[in-house]
Amino acid sequence: MVKKIFPVILFYLCIIFLMKIFFDYRLVEKKENNYNKICSIEEERFDPIQYDSRFNFIDDINYRNAIFHYGKNLSYYINDPYGFLIALSCVESSFGKNQYGKDGEKGLFQIHPYWKRVYNLEEMYLENPEINVYIAVDILTKLFKTYGDPFIVLNVYNTGNNKKKNKKYINRFLECYTKINF
């Protein structure tokens, strides 16, 4: 009896396994097709406002495009990478209106001069929208890999370490996030 049932069970398990592989592959293929559609739109001087109205808060189209392009990298760590980056730009530079910080920070995400040494960049490159957003997303990606928790990541992004706590900064971020979503 067991000898007769075992091949049948094995057969069904193989079919289930093959179906899972096939459907998982189809899902991945579908996601890649959607991604390719977005990329092809982006090449045609795409304005991210067409994709997400929250980009309206940022005046400079170069920053909007850079956030749209590089923000995808954060989707592995948070559900709303665009909202996160737009709210962070609100806290850091009032959506790009104050592009120079008191300690020499520059750009939409107020990249500290320390990072120009880390990335081996000249000062003027921190003002380039694409480089500014790329560095901010790269820093945030590293922080998410290290800490995981968005509030700790925000705190370290702001203070430079996890020992100092800046509740005002976190509260301001939450206010900005609420503002752009409602």
Can you describe what's shown?
By secondary structure, the chain is mainly alpha-helical. It has two domains: 1-44; 50-181, Lysozyme, CATH 1.10.530.10. The chain has seven helices and no strands. α5 crosses α6 (150-159). It is globular.
Concise description?
The chain has 182 residues and is an all-alpha fold. The chain has seven helices and no strands.
Pick out its properties.
globular; Lysozyme; 2 domains; 182 residues; mainly alpha
Strand-helix topology:
Layout: H1 2-43, H2 61-71, H3 81-93, H4 113-118, H5 129-147, H6 150-159, H7 167-181
CATH topology of the largest domain: Lysozyme
Individual helix count? 7
- What is the CATH architecture descriptor of the largest domain? Orthogonal Bundle
Query: Based on DSSP secondary structure assignment, what is the total number of beta strands?
Result: 0
Largest sheet: none
Detail the poorly predicted runs: 21-44
Overall domain count = 2
* Measured distance between first and last alpha carbons: 64 Å
Estimate the strand proportion.
under 5%
Question: Could you estimate the helical fraction of the residues in percent?
Answer: 55-70%
